[in-house]
Amino acid sequence: MVHHLDITARLHRRMLEIVGTALPLMTSARADADLIGLAHLREEMVQAMDAYCHHVHQLHDAGSLVPDHADLLVGGCVELRSAYEAFRIRWVHRDGIENWYEYRLSAVVMMKQVRALVQQAETSRVSRPSRAA
């Protein structure tokens, strides 16, 4: 089972890395905002979340996790993807510069949700004992 946990940790680190890259961009003055860079990071986050949720569903379907933990991970994926999709839809056609302070607040809240999911998943990580002896 260690292999699955390493993949999980790697995917968690990837999402946190994207958040860590985006956060300094949120402190920019409105005129200096890197909207192209932020758009790229949003797409990277979608890819990272898709990979993470796919992995979680694989673990769930394989019965590799204790049921309570599997339910926590799957539920967390569904909740986070829904929140992130709502965030993306909200901002895809709005002018980030004109609404910079609102966008910045919205993005920071979303980053906190990503961090909270990873922290919750990492602190409750438990796998089933290996069946091979």
Notes on the protein architecture:
74% of the residues lie in helices and 0% in strands. The protein has 133 residues and is mostly helical. The model is unreliable at 128-133 (pLDDT under 50).
Descriptors for this entry?
133 residues; mainly alpha; 4 helices; 74% helix; disordered C terminus
Question: In a few lines, what is going on in this structure?
Answer:
The chain has helices spanning 2-22, 35-62, 67-92, 100-123.
What are the SSEs and their pairings?
Layout: H1 2-22, H2 35-62, H3 67-92, H4 100-123
End-to-end distance: 13 Å
Largest sheet entry: none
Uncertain residue segments? 128-133
Structural class: mainly alpha
Order of helices and strands: HHHH
Q: Count all strands and give the number.
A: 0
Portion of residues within helices = over 70%
Strand content: under 5%
Radius of gyration: 17 Å
Number of helical elements: 4
Provide the residue-averaged pLDDT.
86
Overall 3D shape: elongated
